[in-house]
């Protein structure tokens, strides 16, 4: 009877204990992040980081954040930045992620508007050679087809490592050149979901048609009063054969006219490097020497109208050094700090993040225009 009772007790103990350990998976042991260098506030939610295996052993780095609300039922959203060659850590610490890099890249604070409040967000660095993702062979030439195949394999590997999320709705999202990454990955998931509950995609400012994008940027600048009459006349004369109709203009694709190219370069410089907030033209930009963001609409800096007038008269001084709201220097500097660059490979573990791999960007070959993209090998120094 004593032996029988021991068997019954053991069975009951196993029945009770099983639910308590069911959510732990060997593949994710050691992947939980418990320390983020420079974070100035407590972050009470779980997040994980490591590598997902793609084709031919390529390793794509990820950072996965559980939803603040209900991780077990909230959707899983995969996010990719574009470029091609831009790290998705740009979004993690500068856009929709839970963190914001502070002054000079030395610290991080919490982002009150993070998407992680309502979704489990997976930030993926792709293709190999971007950010902390790498190819063990050291070959960093790729194209859209290989990138899509690798991203698909990475998604499958993610759900193998985190099977408890496979029942959740799944979305694929991104910006810029992710206008290529997102639909090509979505096509593969639709063809072979392998149990993934795929529901849809989201693309912000997607690079879906380069001639249209190039033209629309110049028309945007003109109709927002960023150019003077001289520049607009040069653009229409040399790039549009004197017309002002969009279908007659070529501001951004295989430009052969030297004077057109010079005018387009000047226009792009005004829009992208002239001290304007490229995310929202009427939002403020902050500066390295000013503790608070300052809008052009304030008397201290002059109004937007004054700024336009100076453009027209060619009186604008050299662009000032902008901080995080208008460029990504803070994010780059953060990954160069000693605590974030102690080892060769990225490691988000219980001891925090350590890496020497470059934070952003590698140029890659792109389908349809291989000459336009060069290939470089990541530095590990």
From TrEMBL:
<dbReference type="GO" id="GO:0004185">
    <property type="term" value="F:serine-type carboxypeptidase activity"/>
</dbReference>
<comment type="similarity">
    <text>Belongs to the peptidase S10 family.</text>
</comment>
<dbReference type="GO" id="GO:0006508">
    <property type="term" value="P:proteolysis"/>
</dbReference>
<feature type="compositionally biased region" description="Polar residues">
    <location>
        <begin position="347"/>
        <end position="358"/>
    </location>
</feature>
<dbReference type="InterPro" id="IPR029058">
    <property type="entry name" value="AB_hydrolase_fold"/>
</dbReference>
<dbReference type="InterPro" id="IPR001563">
    <property type="entry name" value="Peptidase_S10"/>
</dbReference>
<feature type="region of interest" description="Disordered">
    <location>
        <begin position="293"/>
        <end position="381"/>
    </location>
</feature>
<keyword id="KW-0121">Carboxypeptidase</keyword>
<dbReference type="Pfam" id="PF00450">
    <property type="entry name" value="Peptidase_S10"/>
</dbReference>
<feature type="signal peptide">
    <location>
        <begin position="1"/>
        <end position="22"/>
    </location>
</feature>
<protein>
    <recommendedName>
        <fullName>Carboxypeptidase</fullName>
        <ecNumber>3.4.16.-</ecNumber>
    </recommendedName>
</protein>
<keyword id="KW-0378">Hydrolase</keyword>
<keyword id="KW-0645">Protease</keyword>
<keyword id="KW-0732">Signal</keyword>
<dbReference type="InterPro" id="IPR018202">
    <property type="entry name" value="Ser_caboxypep_ser_AS"/>
</dbReference>
<feature type="compositionally biased region" description="Polar residues">
    <location>
        <begin position="320"/>
        <end position="340"/>
    </location>
</feature>
């Amino acid at each position: 009877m004593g032996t029988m009772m021991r068997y019954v007790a053991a069975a009951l103990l196993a029945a009770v204990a099983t639910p308590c350990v069911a959510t732990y998976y060997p593949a994710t042991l050691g992947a939980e992040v418990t320390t983020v260098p420079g974070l100035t506030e407590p972050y009470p939610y779980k997040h994980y980081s490591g590598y997902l295996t793609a084709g031919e052993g390529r390793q794509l780095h990820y950072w996965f954040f559980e939803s603040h609300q209900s991780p077990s039922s909230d959707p899983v959203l995969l996010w990719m930045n574009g470029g091609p060659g831009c790290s998705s850590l740009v979004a993690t610490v500068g856009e929709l992620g839970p963190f914001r890099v502070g002054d000079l890249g030395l610290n991080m604070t919490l982002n009150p508007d993070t998407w992680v409040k309502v979704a489990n967000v997976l930030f993926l660095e792709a293709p190999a050679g971007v950010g902390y993702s790498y190819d063990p062979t050291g070959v960093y030439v790729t194209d859209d087809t290989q990138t899509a195949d690798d991203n698909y394999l990475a998604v499958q590997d993610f759900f193998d490592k985190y099977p408890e999320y496979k029942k959740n709705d799944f979305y694929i999202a991104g910006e810029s050149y992710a206008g290529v990454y997102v639909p090509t990955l979505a096509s593969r998931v639709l063809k072979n979901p392998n149990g993934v509950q795929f529901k849809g995609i989201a693309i912000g400012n997607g690079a879906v048609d380069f001639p249209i994008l190039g033209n629309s940027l110049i028309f945007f600048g003109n109709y927002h009063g960023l150019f003077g009459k001289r520049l607009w006349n040069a653009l229409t004369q040399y790039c549009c054969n004197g017309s002002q109709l969009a279908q007659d203009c070529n501001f951004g694709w295989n430009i052969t006219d030297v004077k057109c190219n010079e005018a387009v370069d000047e226009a792009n410089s005004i829009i992208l490097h002239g001290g304007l907030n490229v995310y929202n033209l009427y939002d403020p930009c902050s500066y390295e020497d000013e503790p608070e963001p300052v809008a052009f609409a304030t008397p201290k800096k002059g109004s937007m109208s004054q700024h336009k007038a100076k453009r027209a008269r060619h009186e604008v001084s050299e662009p000032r050094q902008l901080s995080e709201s208008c460029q990504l220097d803070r994010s780059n500097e953060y990954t160069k700090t000693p605590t974030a660059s102690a080892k060769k490979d990225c490691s988000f573990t219980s001891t925090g993040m350590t890496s020497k791999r470059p934070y952003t960007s590698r140029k890659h070959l792109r389908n349809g225009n291989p000459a336009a993209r060069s290939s470089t090998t990541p530095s590990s120094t």
